[in-house]
Structures are given as C-alpha cells and as structure tokens.
Amino acid sequence: MAEEFSTDGMLDMYLFENGQLLEQLQDMVLSQKDADCFDEDSINEIFRTMHTIKGSSGIMMFDEITAVAHKLEDVFYYLRESHPDNVPHLELVDHVLEVEDFISNEMEKIRNGEPVDGESGELVARLDEFLDKIKGGKGGKSGKKKGEVPQNKHEEPKQFYIAPVATSASRFYRIYVSFFPETEMANVHAYKVVYALKEMAEDLLYSPEDIISDPECAETILKDGFRILLQAQCTEEDIRRVVGVGYDIDKVDVFECKAEEFLQGFDFGEHDDVPAPAIDLEASVEEIDARTQKAEGAASKEEKKPEKPAIAPGDFVIKSKEPGKQKKLAKDKPKGEKASFISVNVSKMDQLMELIGELVISESVVLQNSDLKVPGLNLDNFNKAAAQLSKISTDLQNVIMSMRMVPLTNTFQKMNRIVFDVSRKLGKDIEFVMVGEQTEVDKNIIEHISDPLMHIVRNSVDHGIESKEERRDAGKSEKGKVTLSAKTEAGKVWISVEDDGAGLDRDKILAKARRQGLLEDSKPDSAYSDKEVFQFITLPGFSTNEVVTEYSGRGVGMDVVVQNIQAIGGALEIESKKGFGSIMSLKIPLTLAIIDGIVMEIGNSSFVMETGAIKEFVRVKEDMMIHEPNGDEYIMIRGECFPVLRLGEWYGLEQYKESVEDGVMLILEVEDKKVCLLVDKLVGEQEIVVKPIPSYIKKVKGLSGCTQLGDGSIALILDAPGLIE
Amino acid sequence: MDERSELKRQVDEDGASGERDTQKGKYMTFKSGNEYFGLEIQYVNEIIQLQAITAIPETEDYIKGLINLRGKVIPVVDVRLRFKQEPFEYNDRTCIIVINIKSMMVGLIVEKIAEVVEIKEDNILPPPTVGRTDRIQNKYVYGIGKVGDTVKLLLDPDKLLNDEDLSVVEQANEMNIDEE
Question: What ipTM, to 2 d.p.?
C-alpha cells in the first residue's frame, strides 16, 4: 500500500481527505441523530462535505461515488433552501449513513486496489424517492418556497459565473489593463493582477480566460488589453493600489458600473464566458465542477482558484449570511487544519522510538562512566552539561510516547454507529452515552481493542437491552441506556460497556454449563461465585441466547473477544445483576511498549516487576513464616496469610539470600489472588522499555519480556499473573 | 540438505545476492574443544567480545542468556555445551559470533576465532556415515572441509540452533518440575 501511495499522491490525498470528511460527517450525523432535525450548520456542513466529495471523486473519475454524493447534495440543497418542516429525521439520518457507508466501502476498495464496482443506482433511487417525499409532503405554509426550489437549481450555473451575491455594499468595476507591448509573457503578468485582486474580490471574471494554460493569449492580452470584471466592496483607489502602473503595466482603467452591466459579463463575442443557461442543469454543474477542480488538481494549481469559491454552491449560503466576508475563507479553512497533520509510517515511529531508547541508554553510559569517578576531577561544567542533556532526552522520550498515543474518540464513535444501526434494526430505543472518550491509548492497542469492543457493544444492545415491551413490563423506562466509558487507572485503561438491560441469568448459564459438562459434578451451583459463572460465557460455543440474530447469538464471539484482549495483556471482567443490567469491563495496558517498573536484584540477576501489580513491600521476620511439612511456605502479615515464593530458589539462581530477614517481600495482587515474592534487594523504580524475549528461547513461566537497564545490562521482566499461577 | 538450499534461497531473497558471490565458499572457522568448525560466512553478522550475559532461568544449559547488542536483545548459545563437550572457562579469547538465520540473531560463544578460509566445493566431503554416528555433533555437521592438511567441520547453523534435541528439552523439563 505504501508503494501505491508514493506513486500516486493524488489518490492518496483523495482517500485521506475524503476519509476525514466522512468521519467528521458521521460524527456530526450521529451527534444529532436524536434531535428532531439537523441544525442549519450541520445541513450546510453535510452539503459542503458532499459537494467536496462529489468534486474530488469527479476528478478521480469515480462516477458512482460522484453520483451518490451528488444526490445527497441535492437532498441537502433542498433542505437548506426550503427548510421543509416535515422531514422524517431518522430516515434522513439513515440515508446519510447509507451514503457514507457506500462511499467508505468504495474508498476501501480503491485503497486495496480492487475495482471500484459499487452500484449506486439503487441508492440514488432511494434518495430520489426520499427527496420526492419531502418535497411532495409539504404543507401549505411553505408552498411559496416550494415553487422556488426548482428555480434555484436552475439558477445555479448562472450564479457560478455571475456575482454570487450582491449586497448593497458591493460595487462593480470594469477594469482594463494594458501592458507595454514589449512585455514578455503578458499572460503571466495578467495572472499576477488577477491574483492580487482575488484577495478583495467577491466575484471576479477576466478575459481572456485561460491566461495560464494558454500562452497564446499573451498576444491577445497585449493587443486587446486584459479585461476584468470585479465585484468587491472597495473603492477605485483600492483597486488602483493593488493593480498599479508599473514596469509591465502601461495603463489601468477602472470604471464603476451597475450590477446589471456586470451581470452581462464581457460584451465581446469570442470570449463570451457566460454560457446560455443550460437545460440539463445537473450535467453542466458537474462538468464545470470537474473542470475547475481538475485544473486545480493539476500542476497549474492556483490559477483557477479565484473562480473556484464562486462556483461552490456551498459557499453561496455562507456568503449570503455574511456578505462582508471574503469568499475564500470558508473553503480554505478546513484545508489549513488538515495540513497540520501528516501521516507517518508506524514502522518509522518504532524505529525512532528504538533509537531514542538507545540514546537514553548510551546517555547513562556516558554520564555514569567509571572514568568520571577518578577522585579530584572538577566536573562542574560537565555536570551542568549533563543535566541539560538529560532534560532533553527525557523530553524526547515524552514526545515520542505522546506521538504514539491516540485518543479513543474514533473507536468510540464507531461504537456509536453500531448502537445506532443495531438498535434501529431491532426496534429498540437506546440512549448511547460516551464517557471519557478522550482517554489516550497507544495506537497498537487501539487497533486490537476495536473488534472486541464492537462485539461487546453489539451484545449489550442485542442481548442486554430488552425489547420495549419487556422493559415496560419490568417497570423500566422504554428507552434503554448503554454507557461506554473509558478511564485510566493504575497504569491501565478501563473501558467498560454498561447497559441497564436484563443482565446475565446466572441460573441459565449454570444450567447450560452443567449440560456442557463444564461444572464439577460434585460441586453445587451455589459453590460457584458470580465471577466464575459469568466467565463461562467467554468459553467457545457458549451462548444462552435461544435465537440467533443477525448480530449475535451464535456462541462465537466472546471467546474471541477474550483471546484478543488477552493477547495484548488485558483482561475482561463481567459484572451483572439480573434485571438491572451488566457491566463488561476491558482492562488493558496503556501501552505495550513502556511500563513503570520496580527494579530488583536477586543474587547477581536483575528483575523488573510492573509497579501496578505490587501491592506493598514488607520486611519480615523469620518468626512470621509458617513452614509446612511438604515444603510449602506461608507468611502471616497483619493477620493475613500469603503463600511465599522465593524467586531465587524457584529460578535456581546463584548467590541469592537464603534468609527472609535479609531480603524484601513483595506482596503481589492479581485479580484477588495474592502472593508474597521474596527478593534480595530493591534497586528503584523506573520507566522501562519492554522488549520481547527472543523467540529462540522458549517461553519461561513468569517472564513476560526483558528490558535494558541504565547501565546497558538486561533485566528480565516478571509477569505477576504468571508467577501466581 | 534440502533445508539448507532453501535457507540459501531465502538469504538470496533478502537481497544479499550481490554480496554472496564474494562470500561464496568462504567459511568462518573457530575452535571448540579440539576441533575446528566452519560456518558459511554469509550467516555471520559480526564478531564481538564477550559481554555481560543475563541468564534466563529454566532454559537449556547451553543457552547462556541474553546480551545487549547495541539495543538489540539477542540470545547467546555456548557452542561447547551445545556439542555436549566439557564446559570451559571464559577468558579474553572467548568471542561471540553473531549469526543471522532467517532474520533471527543468535550469538555463539566460542573459545577462539580462527580465520576465514576458502573451501572449494570439491574439497567438501559428506560426513562419514559409518562409524560414530551416535555422536551428537554429527547432526549439525553437514560436511567436512579440507584445508591443506587440516579439516574443518562445517556446521549447519539452522540445525545447530533449532534441531530438536529432545533429550535436552526433556531433561530441562524434568529439572523444572523438580524445582517447582
């Protein structure tokens, strides 16, 4: 894919920009799905988005996308102009999302190099039908507007060429610029004039038209002069200031004229810019759009720009609201924002991070070099410089880490969409609440949680929330509520999906588990804790849902969810109360790459343990130990009894301390299980960069990776859950 | 042998084909015990001095642990222990040969680096099939190269690292169980 991008920058840009537009579109639509109708800004925004997509798709020759975008643009054009008051809002939301899906799908195909073969016909037909419906179903009070609408459409092309809007402050000028006859490339000089004028122009026309692309017209300009029609809120002096007589321009004539004259355009034959009002309006708009944007996309990027804002019907509205504003503002702003992002290959980021990791380590090798420890050295300046260096490298580390952190917003938005789709299909009324979507998580992790999360959310909507009738019978409000929340706690991210639905049926699950032989026969049902019982639903092939729906119930899923979560070192916790709903919480590490760890020593080996897993450190006395005859050891701390694990002995290390009184006990807690770990010495806490143990070495129980310490040596990372097992 | 040729192909695909011509037939030789061994030079990344090794518990005895090679963590294998020879004291002459096989980097701890020699294909004989086939190291030796009057045992690095030496693994497992 990367290669395709580099060879085809335009396509890349197309996909990137439209992808962003569609995302914004979806966010906006979903945020207003519960309203009665879209507010004016949104309507304009959707209209503009569709217009942009239509235009760029037109350039790229994706006709089906163009057609669909065009149709939706029509619908919103109508909404914007006529403000019909009986629009079925949800239906409209559906249509917008359908279109968004269609375009996203097609773009995905483009990205994968597949043929773009989506059929837009049906979708366009549906949109047509919808448009007819909202047009047809209009009451008498908006009857006046009804008549206007078709006209509006027909005027569009004219507005393109002629002043889009004339306010009382606007003045019209006819400008003739004559160049010195010896001027080389008069067309370029003419373009300079146009470029200068466009800053103040509300509308600008000039003749000859193709000053950049057609060098031939240089002669025409020299012979006949260069003519400009300008609509602007400025005085003649302003114009003269901008288009001054200079080394190239011989003479500038500025005549103020009336709007009507202005509308007539240039009254000379061969350069008649104003086409006869076309009968096939849509086609002509299309054609013009495509032509203008093509020109924009090509090397001669700028020259058509002055015209471009005028043609975009999207701008029309903004201008009529704010007549004083320069038209280019509206269009250019989002582009400016986009330019501040670049997409970088993740592997480059990884490489950068690795290098920074190495830098930090070599820094400590330099700063703690034994050569510096010669007594009597004056290191004042060195220490100052060293402090500065440390500061910079710490900053550098922080920056690279923050670059990898991405807010969960996009993932959450996707869930919003799923809730919307599923609940609509199932006829459930569901309020979807998102909390803490700004929580930032490492990009690698986001990629891994999206699918599991989607599954859980779907489950909540499908199984969790009951049907309206059931809810009414149970005395709940008909509207179900699904809350998706994220928070950071103890170095982990908690993402939970909470619903106020039926909850899990403990008895049903137990019965099923017994049928499947998952329970020990001798153990009564009551001996299983809720937690244990709910864990059954994460087993493969376990679904208590009698009816398989489109969305869930086949019993595949939860096991995959759990697998995926475990793969990134996370866990799934299920809480539920029958009749009151359930909470599914994903506990995932903030980042895979860097963890806070406690460095410790046993004998001459260093180990690191994740800080989050350690509950406390204690120094113990020999008399606190309880020795069982079979060799097991326990320790009594504040009346609580913990099993003891002597790490040195367990791993068969050398020179570890035998006596518990010489060492330090670490109390580890993982999911309510506690264990005491005996180590020789604590070294300190530090942020460590997790590296995998090379695959050549087979998996060792209790070790999850390795890391480099400040002195360049390698420490093994202990994995608390593995040790407890 | 098939595996080896596949290995070679892979290396070729990795883009080393240009270099390979000059590397062909050249062997890095080192001493382990009383024998001299040869490794095709295309597998050799570099030779480094012995450095601090972080031991990993519960692994085979010949896997000495991990070293930090400029930020890369690579496992090191004691060749003598791998060949079931007597362990030896590491000293100044002890080196680590870093080899790269199937994009996996592994360090080999050897007593002494000898030299790079060129061995023509006609001077490479298959290992004798009669006689002491029970000796474990025969598994890793795919040929015997003649250099003047001496012979070098040519090692198949892939087998050297990945050959499933069941008895060792089993032993290790038993040891683990005992410890637990």
Answer: 0.71
